[in-house]
Structures are given as C-alpha cells and as structure tokens.
Design brief:
Layout: E1 3-4, H1 9-24, H2 39-50, E2 56-59, E3 63-70, E4 73-81, H3 87-102, E5 110-115, H4 119-127, E6 131-140, E7 151-155, E8 158-163, E9 175-179, H5 183-194, E10 200-206, H6 217-221, E11 225-233
Parallel strand pairs: 4-5, 9-10
Antiparallel strand pairs: 1-2, 2-3, 3-4, 5-11, 6-10, 6-11, 7-8, 8-9
Length: 236
C-alpha cells in the first residue's frame, strides 16, 4: 500500500536517491557524478516540492515517488526503490498511484526520467506502455577557457544555455544545453562551449509524441553518449 510522505520520509527518500546517484555514476562518471553532503538539502527540496498544490508524494515500505506539474505534464524525477526486484511491485504501485492522483486536464500525460543503463527501471516504464520521447546526448569536455559566461550564449551560430549542474551533481564545472540541434553542428558547438569553461555539452533530443531514436551515429562519432532517457505517455 502507498501512503502520503511526511517529515522524516523525505530524509529516507533522499538517502535512497543518494544510493541511486552513486550507481548511476558508474554509467556516466561525469554527467552523473554525485555532489557530496547534499542529502539534507535534497530532502528539503523534495519536501518543498511535495507541498505544491500540483504535486504528489507517496511512499511504500520499500520505495517512493514525487511528481509535480512541469511543462504541461506530470513529471517524475525523484523515484526510487530500495532493491531492483521491487521495481515490478512497489515501483509499479507507486507510479500508478501517483498518476491516478495527479492526472488532470493540466497534467494529461506523464513523463519520467531514468538512466539508459538502469534496465529494471526501464523495463517498468516500458511495461506500462510509456515510450522514450526524449534523450540527452552528452559529451565530456576539457575546458580551454575559464567559466566566465552564464545564461544564453551563441556558440558557432548555435543558440545555447550555460548553466550550473543541479545541486545534487558535481561534474566539475558548468554545463551547456545545446537544445535539439542538428547532429552535424553539435561537435563544433561543444568545442566552442569548452572555451567558456564548460565540462559537459548536452544535446536535448525531443521527439514527443513520437519515439526518440536510440542511436545517433553522427553524435556518437563526435564523442556524445546517451546517459538519460525520458519516458512519456499514459501509464496502462
């Protein structure tokens, strides 16, 4: 059974997420590199998120989920179980319960984030009729300049955004979002980003409502890899 998360539940949930980040770092050591000593801050963030009118925060004895309204969807990022074998039981119960509560005209579809290499979680999402509508293709960079520019920039004629990584991660410097650009321009823009002290360039491939291709030969040839996926749809 699920129950609404309260108080100390968020500390426990943040500890589960900390263990998940450590595992994800094995898949992409720079992109998923965990920041240190952020458990309390992450718990506070999830607690504040759960207080939103559009949010849902549920737990079982072995897992939890927090969802909220984002870009017209029921969005799920903080979602974990304490053992991979529980994705098919607690994980499914939590996701379906959150969706049942959140589903509304303002949240007509669900989107959930996972690592591409997290096979048990991917199996759960795909098994509920969700498809990958977006992927992040990432390239690690060696900075050739200092981090002196933040916000919108133009890199080799490509509009981009230089931002810090989310507080729970520490890739070693700023990241650059290149958006859903043509693959032929990605490596040139990434090289230009390195001149601004950027350590990660990210191409955000968005194909909603169609399924995003699982291979991008030109991006891969340019040194990009795909650590994260976004599953979307109406869970069934």
């Amino acid at each position: 059974m699920t129950r609404v998360m309260v108080d100390d539940d968020f500390i426990w949930a943040a500890q589960l997420m900390e263990r998940r980040r450590a595992r994800y770092a094995e898949f992409s050591p720079v992109f998923w590199k965990p920041a240190e000593r952020v458990t309390d801050a992450h718990a506070q963030f999830m607690r504040a998120t759960a207080a939103r009118e559009d949010a849902v925060a549920l737990r079982t004895d072995h897992g939890f989920v927090v969802s909220y309204l984002h870009e017209g969807r029921c969005f799920i990022d903080d979602f974990a179980v304490d053992d991979d074998e529980r994705w098919a039981t607690d994980g499914q119960t939590l996701l379906l319960s959150a969706w049942k509560t959140a589903r509304s005209p303002s949240q007509p579809t669900l989107r959930a984030v996972t690592a591409r290499e997290d096979a048990p979680k991917r199996e759960l999402l795909a098994g509920l009729s969700l498809i990958v509508t977006a992927r992040w293709w990432v390239k690690e960079l060696t900075p050739t300049g200092k981090a002196s520019t933040w916000g919108p920039v133009v890199l080799a004629d490509v509009p981009a955004l230089i931002i810090p990584a989310p507080p729970v991660y520490d890739p070693g410097g700023p990241v650059c979002l290149l958006g859903d650009i043509d693959a032929s321009r990605a490596s040139i823009a990434a090289d230009a980003a390195a001149e601004h002290g950027v350590v990660l360039a990210i191409v955000q491939r968005e194909c909603s409502p169609a399924e995003a291709p699982d291979s991008e030969p030109q991006l891969e040839a340019g040194g990009f890899h795909n650590p994260s996926e976004f599953y979307e749809g109406s869970p069934a």
